[in-house]
Amino acid sequence: xxxxxLKIALVLAIGVLSVSTAAIFIRLASEAAGGGSIAFSxxxxxxxxxxxxxxxxxxxxxxxxxKTTAKAYYLAIAAGFALACHFATWTASLSYTSIAAxxxxxxxxxxWIALIGWWWFGEKPRRSTFLGIFLALSGGxxxxxxxxxxxxxxxxxxxxxxxxxxxxxxxxxxxxCGREARREELxxxxxxxxxxxxxxxxxxxxxxxxxxxxxEYSPAVYTYxxxxxxxxxxxxxxxxxxxxxxxxxxxxxxxxxxxPIGSSLLGVLIFREIPPASAIYGGFILSIGVISAxxxxxxKSQPYSDADHTE
Length: 311
Known about the structure:
Elements: H1 5-32, H2 38-56, H3 70-93, H4 99-106, H5 109-121, H6 127-145, H7 157-183, H8 188-203, H9 206-209, H10 219-243, H11 249-256, H12 259-271, H13 277-297
Helix pairs in contact: 1-10, 1-12, 2-3, 2-8, 2-10, 3-7, 3-8, 4-7, 4-12, 4-13, 5-7, 6-13
């Protein structure tokens, strides 16, 4: 028997609240470390993926008899590279711009998936998708280039917004590679394990190359790293995957758009960080555009997994 609508709504709400904490824990970890830096951002991104890949490793030894192509494994590895770039850029963005702007820009990947899919696979978007892209780009410009109210709080908003946008682009390539890998009959469990492990291996040496390491931080920092792996990664993504058995991918994609709202509200409560007016108005316009794009392009029969959401 399917669960009640109330139970599904509750699980989705838990999922949104869980993924909304990712930006908060990253900011708390940065404060515990005495300030963010590129080396520290790469440490957070690498630690998160290392823990996630360790947890998922048993999936690799299940269904070892499944038949797939070498192309599927190459696509999963390519997805892992894109995922590493996604976490590296988005995590770094939170050291330079507001939580509201960063989380709003990084969830725009449905737009870029539509455009990349058109360019790469010849999948021409519908008119509603084009309208959504126009609205979202208008809102995104307002978020990225609008005046900020607290320049002292955000060291370099333009850089941070650019990094968040780069994170959205990388997430789009990650999702598209994942889609093609699944079309090659690679199971979701093995695909995610290979992609996460590749991302972890790519990120592993980067803290050292930027002047950092894994052993110089306080216990509080490592505690926040564990929380990042547990709450947004495990609870948040698991909630969405559970709900997808009962609701369409379109509904889940729309629900995920509440993440910037949840992150912004938590930012106000915990850090007293009031988003700039440009981020609020631009984020609203951008969200309407993303909703239009999702409704216009999402195939309800398309499978959805951890590959469709990354924060």
